[in-house]
Write a structure and sequence with these properties.
elongated, about 40% helix, about 260 residues, 10 strands, five-stranded mixed sheet, binds copper (II) ion, alpha+beta, Immunoglobulin-like, single chain
């Protein structure tokens, strides 16, 4: 009985109260909305099954419980039933597997993607114990594979423009980490030796969590930064201010490079 009440609470009350996901979430990114839809579809299927099983269980306990006089019939099983309860879940699993392919392809940058954004990451994010190191190209330039003299650096403070797909290049300097933007539903392992493109689109101006989702050592818990999503003009201004704070010592940049 307690389990049945818990089931109803988990599958009916929690989603309607918004307890399943970090909020605001849904309206923040187009891909995030699709991921949430998939989650709720699976939740609905498993929820209906789970609650149905518990209703049947409680009914049978009540109907055939001791002291009622009625007795259950013991059988050696039903071949038809076994076939039905194997084929129906197999069909449901196949449906989910096919239904999610489009979202997975988008998540993995395989469809509906802006090639321009993919060719020009806005930043390189390098995870290390226990922080996120961020490298931006100088304003007006594109990010190169190797560090440039006029690159800009921050730690744990990622900025990105809103309203369009944005790509970052993800690396790790030491162990496995996981780049996680919970409100945007983006999660990608950072793997030593690999440079992995990660894309997201944030449609709302604001500050969102950037955390590590892979236990990476004693300081894992404090490996958190933030994503500041801002309009394009403000993002450009941010890069210019960063350049001023990191390079403006009175010597023009072009001179300093010589
Ligand atoms: Cu970590």
């Amino acid at each position: 009985m307690v389990a049945s009440i818990a089931a109803v609470a988990a599958f009916v009350v929690a989603p309607s109260m918004g307890w399943w996901f970090p909020t605001p979430g849904y309206s923040l990114s187009p891909l995030g909305a699709q991921i949430d839809d998939l989650f709720y579809l699976i939740l609905a299927i498993t929820g209906v099954t789970f609650i149905g099983v518990h209703v049947a269980l409680v009914y049978i306990l009540w109907k055939f419980g001791s002291g009622k006089g009625e007795r259950g019939v013991f059988t050696h099983g039903s071949h038809t039933l076994e076939v039905v309860w194997s084929i129906v879940p197999a069909g449901i699993l196949l449906f989910i597997a096919l239904y999610q392919m489009d979202v997975w392809a988008r998540y993995r940058v395989k469809s509906n993607f802006d090639a321009e954004a993919l060719a020009h990451p806005i930043a390189e994010v390098t995870a290390r114990q226990f922080e996120w190191r961020i490298r931006y190209p100088a304003p007006g330039k594109t990010l190169q594979d190797t560090p440039q003299f006029d690159d800009l650096y921050t730690v744990n403070d990622l900025h990105a423009p809103t309203g369009r797909p944005v790509v970052i290049r993800l690396k790790s300097e030491d162990v496995l980490h996981s780049f996680y933007l919970p409100q945007l539903r983006v999660k990608q392992d950072a793997v030593p030796g690999l440079a992995i493109p990660v894309w997201f689109q944030c449609d709302k101006v604001g500050e969102w969590d950037l955390v590590c989702a892979e236990l990476c050592g004693w300081g894992h818990y404090k490996m958190r930064g933030q994503l500041t999503a801002q309009r394009d003009a403000e993002f450009q201004k941010y890069l210019q201010d960063l350049q001023k704070s990191q390079f403006d010592d009175g010597v023009p940049l072009a001179k300093a490079a010589e």
